[in-house]
């Protein structure tokens, strides 16, 4: 066909050829071939991409992987576990989240991305929120994944200051490990009370004994100043100075008492053997 066209153009000239029936005949044949190729290509793409054929993402939350495998397999879909979280409201090792979202349209052989529920909660370090405001303490705890539990108000001169933190009645120190989502209780200062109380005599008492006496009087431990080389164990140190002193006038309940500590001095007489060797 190409040779015939070339010969015809050679005899007639190109301009004249464009007005002949032969030109329009071959142009129509070429257009028909292009159209057929395009139609075949579009039909093949529809089959390949399954145009118009889709499924809705099933609700598989709370299902274990064996159940997911069966449901997804029946729908000719795939799945992939990409992460895990912990939620107490669904069984361990079951589906917590699925993407695309449940009810979304998805085509055959597509992949569902699954987040599993862990078999145990993640353990998280407890932040130190003592001596911070209640608002700041709540923000820090929530940022770590904890929730605010009970807030106990006690008399103290610094209103809305967190004095201590606890979990299930147990005092918490910074760095302790708790399950993510655990409730942390806060002991919060509520300002000084109008009730007056006498300051107890604390000199000569161990740190443990001093805390108990102050608590019984509705007072708090303020600044603690340790002498050089002072032990950490509260039963191995004694108070040798306090402010205010026991001779001071009565103070408001909630007032803090500063304590100066030193190591317990052993009685040399108690460490000396008697004449019998004991």
Question: What are its keywords?
Answer:
single chain; 278 residues; alpha+beta; Trypsin Inhibitor V, Chain A; 4-stranded mixed sheet; 3-stranded mixed sheet; 6 helices; 16 strands; rod-shaped
Compact summary:
With 278 residues, the protein is α+β, with helices and mostly antiparallel strands.
What is the CATH third-level topology name of the largest domain? Answer: Trypsin Inhibitor V, Chain A
Using only C-alpha atoms, the radius of gyration works out to 41 Å
What is the tally of helical segments?
6
Helix content: 25-40%
Please give the CATH class of the largest domain: Alpha Beta
Low-confidence stretches: 268-278
Number of domains: 4
Q: Give the total of beta strands.
A: 16
What is the end-to-end distance?
Answer: 129 Å
Q: DSSP strand (E) fraction?
A: 25-35%
**Shape estimate:** rod-shaped
What is the N-to-C succession of helices and strands? HHHEHEEEEEHEEEEEEHEEEE
Strand order of the largest sheet: 7-11-8-9
The largest sheet, given as strand count, sense and whether it forms a barrel, is: 4 strands, mixed
Question: In the CATH hierarchy, what is the architecture of the largest domain at level 2?
Answer: 2-Layer Sandwich
Class computed from helices, strands and strand pairing: alpha+beta
Summarize model confidence as the mean pLDDT.
82
């Amino acid at each position: 066909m190409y040779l015939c066209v070339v010969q015809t153009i050679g005899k007639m000239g190109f301009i004249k050829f464009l007005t002949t029936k032969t030109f329009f005949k071959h142009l129509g044949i070429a257009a028909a071939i292009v159209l057929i190729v395009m139609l075949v290509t579009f039909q093949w793409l529809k089959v390949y991409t399954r145009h118009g054929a889709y499924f809705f993402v099933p609700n598989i939350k709370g299902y274990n992987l064996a159940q997911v495998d069966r449901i997804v397999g029946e729908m000719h879909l795939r799945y992939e576990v990409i992460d895990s979280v912990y939620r107490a409201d669904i069984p361990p090792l079951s589906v917590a989240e699925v993407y695309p979202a449940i009810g979304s349209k998805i085509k055959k052989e597509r992949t569902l991305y699954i987040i599993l529920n862990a078999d145990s909660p993640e353990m998280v370090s407890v932040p130190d929120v003592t001596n911070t405001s209640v608002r700041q303490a709540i923000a820090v705890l929530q940022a770590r994944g904890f929730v605010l539990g009970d807030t106990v108000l006690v008399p103290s001169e610094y209103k809305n200051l967190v004095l201590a933190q606890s979990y299930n009645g147990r005092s918490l120190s910074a760095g302790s490990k708790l399950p993510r989502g655990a409730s942390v209780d806060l002991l919060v200062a509520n300002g000084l009370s109008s009730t007056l109380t006498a300051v107890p005599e604390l000199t000569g008492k161990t740190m443990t004994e001093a805390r108990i006496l102050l608590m019984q009087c509705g007072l708090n431990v303020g600044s603690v100043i340790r002498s050089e080389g002072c032990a950490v164990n509260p039963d191995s140190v004694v108070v040798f100075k306090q402010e205010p002193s026991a001779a001071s006038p009565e103070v408001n309940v909630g007032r803090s008492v500063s304590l100066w500590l030193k190591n317990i001095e052993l009685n040399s007489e108690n460490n000396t053997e008697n004449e019998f060797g004991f």
